[in-house]
Amino acid sequence: MSKIIFANWKGRVKTETEAVRLARATDAQGIVLCPPHEFLNEVAAVVQHAALGTQDYAPDAFARGARYALVGHADRRSAGDTDAIVADKLALAVTDGLVPVLCVGESCVERNSGATHGVLKRQVKEGLSKYLQFLASSGYNLTSSIYITYEPLWAISSGKGSVPCSSEAAISRIAFIKEQLLHWGYDIAVKYLYGGSVTAKNCLQYLNKNDIDGLLVGSASVNPNELKKIWHSASKS
Ligand code: PGA
Predict the structure, then answer these.
(1) How far is ligand 1, taken at its centre, from the CA of residue 166, in Å?
(2) Which of 14, 43, 78, 119 could anchor a disulfide with 23, C-beta 3.0 to 4.6 Å?
(3) Residue 138 pLDDT class (50, 70, 90 cuts)
(4) What is the pTM of this model?
């Protein structure tokens, strides 16, 4: 299993019974289940192979079994998380022992006005700022990579008229982020994910690319058959 699949249930799972059923049906190594915060304990109690992630940083996430934390997801940014808040959450996640997954991506308006690179630069630079300060001041030795997800807002399935981003475009954005990190002299290990309308049908175009280390899957992740097919493709890539 070389590629990782983050299953971001968002608010789609409403009850504990549903959460436990879905977790049992999709419990596989290489999958990170990200249930709503209130079901973390119940999901942690039943999974044996999958890892757990929190949909947003929370101080009790690690104690509830999460080992990964999404930060800066479009849902959180639209609910008011600024780059400064995202930066705080990312650094807090690391100090708690969680592997952070920084989500970045431009809106449709930003893309159409040619602002994509500017947005990515700002979200990555500011998002990592507190974490880098923390690394510098503590001499903290990070043993695992952090993740950056390129997830353009216009590709997220709940958005109006959303379409998946082509793998070529996703790779070019990821390459741009990598160039920026080099340019800024950031000596950190980063793995890259793509997110936005990923399905069992289109996942291979991303999974086949060396520059994409995994996927952040939203709506398809609450359909066990869909997620299993995506996981199956990931385990072969
Ligand atoms: P989607 O959601 O796969 O339904 O587009 C992705 C996400 O919001 O993380």
Answers:
(1) 15
(2) 43
(3) confident
(4) 0.96
